[in-house]
Amino acid sequence: MIKKPVRFILLGGFLGAGKTTALMRLARHYAGQGLRVGIITNDQAEGLVDTLTFKEAGYTTEEIPSGCFCCHFEKLLEASGRLADGLEPDVILAEPVGSCTDLVNAVITPLKTVYSDRFDVAPYATLLDPVRAQEALGATGPMGFSKKVTYLYKMQQNEADIVVVNKSDRLDDSAREFLRELVAQNFPSATGVFVSALTGEGFDTLIPLLDSPDEAGRNPSRVDYVRYSEGEVALGWLNARIILEGQAPWDGNFLIAALADGIQSSLTESGVVIAHFKMRLVDSTGTEVAMHVTQNEGAPDLNGRFEAPIQRASLVINVRAEGRPEALHAAVHEGLREIGIRFRLEWTNAEWDAFSPNPPIPPPPERNTVRIDP
Ligand SMILES: Nc1nc2c(ncn2[C@@H]2O[C@H](COP(=O)(O)OP(=O)(O)OP(=O)(O)O)[C@@H](O)[C@H]2O)c(=O)[nH]1
Ligand SMILES: [Mg+2]
């Protein structure tokens, strides 16, 4: 039997812009329409918090670790092939790693041309965090990224068919108007939309755009790979998995907030610019609290609550930031040392990985003409 091409929706945007939150909302929408939804996640590292989020919500999820979709195009084909063989999805929702750009040339164009029998590619949308956008596009912000990372950031939106300003629940009318102008001036070829992945506002506008038969990837950009590499390697990644064990029970809600604050302060003191710092603390009953920070200043975003004191828990820490991996390592280590003393607990079984992403590789020209069927 000949299979119908699967609708392929890639949702890009910088680290912490809200891709996972928005994709969860889109997944619920399409599943609610009776469609089968498959998810593909992507990161420079393995064992992603995002993959767990999608799997726990019950979605069949494939993870492509250790590099971006652009550099792992074959793995993207393989992952969608596995979804097609098992789940036979109607829609694939894909989240590229938030430090990746040139997705139109490297992924969307080959999928919609060479593999049009397998994929029906949706217009390409990227998400923006409003605070980050104002910093990166030069409007405000003393604690913004360097020019190197800002180049990467701008190129991410430059190639989008739809630029989506997310987190609009935090915007008043004047901020909204300001951002509307900023997006229109900087990315005139894209359609601008405001949404809140948290509340659902604006999805009644975004979804018809994603579902429209408009051509995907109408704004391919000419990415300077020297500058793109400089931007990517200026970033640092840290992943840690740790067991925390106390001499006496402790308050997990208090601990995760204190640890977030300690690490955020240490990162800031060492001049590291936070892109996305996330943690998950899970107690022995399986209760968990997730924490996200997407700026150097401001309170962490905490989801979930422990109702009882904890004696033993597992902790996952992911930091993505502009800074050297050693500085990320030192800040996280210091944060853990402080809570160790304060809560009288020990941390063991630590698995650490701190690194800068590998420089990206331009897509080979034959990707747009020669088919590979892994
Ligand atoms: N206020 C508000 N917060 C949001 C919204 N969407 C996402 N967030 C928060 O922003 C933070 C980052 O969201 P994610 O969905 O994990 O962002 P991401 O783009 O997937 O991040 P990476 O995978 O690290 O690149 C979390 O604290 C979310 O709860 C929104 O519409 N409004
Ligand atoms: Mg994510």
Report on the architecture of this protein.
There is one protein chain. This protein has 374 residues and is α/β, with parallel strands linked by helices. The strands form two sheets. Strands 1, 2, 3, 4, 5, 6, 7 and 8 form an eight-stranded parallel sheet that branches. A six-stranded antiparallel sheet has the order 12-11-10-13-9-14. The chain has eleven helices and 14 strands. Helix 6 (147-158) crosses helix 9 and helix 10 runs antiparallel to helix 11. The chain folds into two domains: 6-212 and 224-231, Rossmann fold, CATH 3.40.50.300; 236-355, Alpha-Beta Plaits (2-Layer Sandwich). The chain has helices at 19-32, 49-56, 73-86, 103-113, 130-136, 147-158, 173-186, 203-211, 225-233, 252-269, 325-343; strands spanning 6-13, 37-42, 60-64, 91-95, 119-121, 125-128, 162-165, 191-194, 235-250, 273-283, 288-293, 301-303, 310-322, 345-355. It binds guanosine-5'-triphosphate and magnesium ion.
